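Lab notebook: predicted structure, single chain.

Context: the supervisor wants predicted structures on file for every construct in the current expression panel, including those that have not yet been purified. This is the next one on the list. No modifications to the sequence; it matches the entry in the shared construct table.
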Amino acid sequence: MRRAAGAGLAAIVASACVAACASSTGGGAPEDAAPAEVRFPAGFLWGSASAGFQVEKGLGNTDWGIWVDTPGKIKGGDDPDVGGADALAHVDEDVALLRATNQNTYRFSIEWARIYPTRAAFDADQPDPAALASYDKLFAALRAAKITPFVTLQHFSLPDYLSDPRKPNEPQGWERPESITMFATWCTRAATRWGGDVDWWATINEPLVAPIAGYIQGAFPPGVLLGVDRALAVGKNEARAHAKCFDAIKAVDTRDADGDGTTSMVGIVQHQRAVEPEDPSYPEDVQAAERVRYVNNLWILNAVVRGDWDDDFDGNLDGPADRRADPALAGRSDYLGINYYSALVATVNGLRIPVIDAFIKQDRLPNDRPKTDFHWDIYPRGLRIVLDEVKPFGLPVVITENGIADSTDVNRSRFLLEHLYELGRARADGLDVRGYIYWSLLDNFEWASGFCPRFGLHAVDRTTGARTARPSAQTYARIAASGTVTKAELDGAAPYAPPAYCE
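Prediction complete. Output recorded below exactly as produced.
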C-alpha cells in the first residue's frame, strides 16, 4: 500500500515554503505586475563557476579518477585529462576572461586529493608543494584582478583513500564515519592557509545529488543501484560534516579578505528543483511531489539552519532519533547557496524510490517548455519558486549555479535574461540575494555525460585548449556592468530555438 504523506510532512513543508509550494506556476508577484526593469545593487557578486575535477587535470587519485578509467561509465569514454580545460595551466588567461566580461567573482573548488594525494600525506599534514603553489597562483591572479574568490571545499570528487568505487560493496566516502572528522580537518587546513584570500566558503556542493546518483541511480561513484539505506547514510553524514566544517572555518578564518568587516561567510550549496506532480488533478501525485520537494529541497536546510533533524525523512520530528533545534547543527549556515537549473516531475506511477515513495522524471518532460541540449526544461519561473521556498529561512542567498547546456549558443542569452529578471523580482520582493554565479565559465567535463553538454560562456578547443568567448558572454558582460535587466530587452530577445540535443 502506498504510504500517504502525513500531516507532519505537510506542516514542515508549509513552514519552509510560501504559496509557490502549492502550485507549479505560483510564487511571487503576478505576471501582469512585471516591472519595466530590475536592478541589482553595487557590490553584487557577478560571477561564473567551475569545479576542480571538471576543469583540472591530474586527479586520477580520486574516486572520479577511478570512475573515468572504468569502461562504460562515461559517455563516449571521455577523460578530463584528454582534451579538458586544464585550468591550472591557464590561470592568467581564465582570470582575463572574467575581467573581460565584467565579473567580480569566481567560484571554484580546491581539490582535497591534489593537496593531499595520499592518506599518509594527509595524516602527517604534508601537503604537496606543487599543488599549493598552483592554487596560490590562482589566488594571486584573482587578487590582482580584484575578483572575489568563492571557494568550494568538496565538489563531488573525494580522495581515493576515502572513496574507491572498485570496492562498491564496502562503505565508501561519506558513508564512513571518519569522513566527517577528516573533512573537518581538511576545512581547518584550507581555511588556515587561504583565509586571508577567501571570505566566501562553500562546504559541500549539492550534498543530496551524490547519494542519489551514486547509490540509487548508479551513475556516480560508487555505482550502487537502489542502495537507499546507504544513500540516506551518506546524506546524513554530509549534513554532519557540513556543520563540523562550518565550525572549523569559523575557528581559524579570522581574516577579513575583502575589507567589508566580515571574516567569513560559510554556507552549503544545495541543488534545488521546481517539483511538480505529473498529474496535478491526481491527489497521490500531488502528495508525491510534496514528499520529493521536502526531501530534495528542504531536508538538509532544515537540519543545518534550524537544527531540525528528521532522521527517517518522513516529515515528522517525533521519531526516536529525531531532534528539534539540535545545537550541534542549528545556525550552521551564513548564507544559502542555491543551484537551480530546471524542474522535475514526481508521480506514483513507475518504479518508486523508497522514503519518497515516488518515481522522478527530470528530462524529456512532456510539456511545451523549451528544452536544453540536456533535455532539461528551460523554466525561469521555477527559479522564483525555489527562492520563495527558501525565503522563510531568513538567510542571504547566492545563486551559486544556474546555466544551460547550449552548444550552439542560440539560447543562452535569453536564458540569462529570463533567469536574472526573475532573480531581480525576487530581490524587489524582499529576498536578500547577494550574488549570481553562472555555470560555467568554461566548457567542462560534465561528469558521467563527458564533454557532450556545453555550459560554458567560453568554448574550449579540445585540441589546443584555446578559449573562445561565445556571444552570450557579452550579454552577461553587459548585465554585470549595468546591474540591470529590462523588460524591453527581455521581450526583444530572440525566441528559444530548438536545442542541439546532447546524445
